[in-house]
Amino acid sequence: MKTEAYLFAGVAGFFLVAGACYTWLSDREPAGTAALVVSFLMASLVAFFCAVNHRRRGERPEDRKDGEIADRAGRLGFFPPRSYYPPLTGFGAALSALGIVFGLWLFIIGFGVLWGGVFGLAFQHVQRD
Questions:
Q1: Per-residue pLDDT at 96 exceeds 80
Q2: pTM to 2 decimals?
Q3: HSE on the CB side for 93, CA within 13 Å?
Q4: Alpha helices (H) along 2-128
Q5: 3-class SS at 71?
Q6: Are 75 and 122 spatial neighbours (Cβ–Cβ below 8 Å)?
Q7: Residues 6 or more apart from 9 whose CB is under 8 A from it?
Q8: Residue 128 — pLDDT band, cuts 50, 70, 90?
Q9: Closest to 114 (Cα-Cα) out of 81, 83, 92
């Protein structure tokens, strides 16, 4: 994960420099500046995730030069059998999008449903000790 973190940090750095140059040369044109800022933030998020994952779990077998295929054998992780939160999250996102068109009241309801779905997805299978 360390290599991926460096790779995405480089991509984020490119978008940061490109965004700064674009903002300076285009007299602060909002659409392109916003797109480059969002691209910088997304690449930074992936780089941060990869760096934290590497720090928590260490090197993976495929990161080592002496790694074997058998080193990756075994349990990969926990995959839930079923969940009602993905459709709830999608419904909340659709309601929020419709709320942008029809009014703030629908957006607030949709955002509440979306928040409930995302919160449920994140903490559905948290182990309580």
A1: yes
A2: 0.58
A3: 8
A4: 2-25, 30-57, 85-102, 104-123
A5: helix
A6: no
A7: 43, 44, 47, 51
A8: low
A9: 92
